[in-house]
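4.2 Preliminary Data

To establish feasibility before requesting continued support, the project team ran the inverse folding procedure on a target of 123 residues. The structure was first converted into the token representation described in Section 3, and no sequence information of any kind was made available to the design step. The complete token record follows.
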């Protein structure tokens, strides 16, 4: 996947917004104000959230997945997106990061997004 494909995919998820709070080189994707992914525009990589054991497994299996440079390395990994990993894996990592953040939202905020997410997943 390239950066534009990743961006389009993220924005297709229910309730996702984007902004650039750190300057022109990093795009941040959020659900209800909570970050679930970054895109480093210069380095062609994303940072995704995951469970700690999943991060260990991914880093052992793929050279293109490393501890996130500017994030909590236990819960975040940097993923090189251009040509090194299958698109389906990149989409899965984005979806898992999204779901982790979605599941931590208060019930009132989560209810509508969850139903949209479930409808989307069943298509």
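Position-by-position output of the design step:
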């Amino acid at each position: 996947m390239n950066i534009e494909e990743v961006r389009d995919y993220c924005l297709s998820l229910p309730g996702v917004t984007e902004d650039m709070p750190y300057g022109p080189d990093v795009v941040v994707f959020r659900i209800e104000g909570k970050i679930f992914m970054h895109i480093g525009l210069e380095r062609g990589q994303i940072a995704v959230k995951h469970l700690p054991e999943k991060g260990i497994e991914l880093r052992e299996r793929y050279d293109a997945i490393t501890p996130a440079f500017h994030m909590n390395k236990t819960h975040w990994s940097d993923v090189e997106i251009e040509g090194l990993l299958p698109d389906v894996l990149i989409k899965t990592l984005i979806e898992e990061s999204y779901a982790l953040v979605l599941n931590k939202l208060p019930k009132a905020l989560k209810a509508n997004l969850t139903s949209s997410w479930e409808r989307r997943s069943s298509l």
